[in-house]
Design brief:
6 strands, 2 helices
């Protein structure tokens, strides 16, 4: 059997590192993932809860902020609980690996200063065109 999930989208809030009563670090975030859509249709977005544990949780809390693109590899978890005598379900992704997946909207560009190396400071980028994630690739 296989339970493997891969999603890519933007974080809806800054990650906040927490700890269980036993001191195990964890982090709950929500990833906004656009559904595949036709060009003439309205874009729909799914908001997918993601939980990471231990060093993965520490990694996301240190390196990601709201609006940043992230790729998540993990497994689907369905937890149940009862409220007012009614059984309820919570579906989420349990993250095994997290990856940087592109640029960010908003403040991330200001919070993470570009790295500078003496070799590339004088490199001319004027002949290159930036392709944003939401644009079609020109080939």
């Amino acid at each position: 059997m296989m339970n493997y999930v891969v999603i890519m989208g933007r974080l809806t809030a800054d990650p906040e590192l927490r700890q269980t009563a036993d001191g195990i670090p964890y982090c709950n975030v929500t990833v906004a993932v656009e559904r595949d859509h036709r060009k003439d249709a309205e874009t729909k977005v799914d908001f997918i809860p993601v939980t990471s544990w231990r060093s993965t949780a520490e990694f996301i809390s240190r390196n990601f902020v709201k609006g940043q693109m992230i790729a998540v590899h993990g497994s689907l978890r369905i937890n149940t609980y009862e409220k007012d005598g009614e059984k309820r379900y919570i579906t989420s992704v349990n993250a095994d690996k997290l990856f940087f997946a592109g640029g960010a909207k908003g403040r991330i560009a200001q919070e993470i200063p570009p790295e500078s190396s003496g070799e590339t400071e004088n490199f001319d980028l004027s002949e290159y065109e930036e392709i944003l994630a939401n644009e079609d690739v020109p080939f």
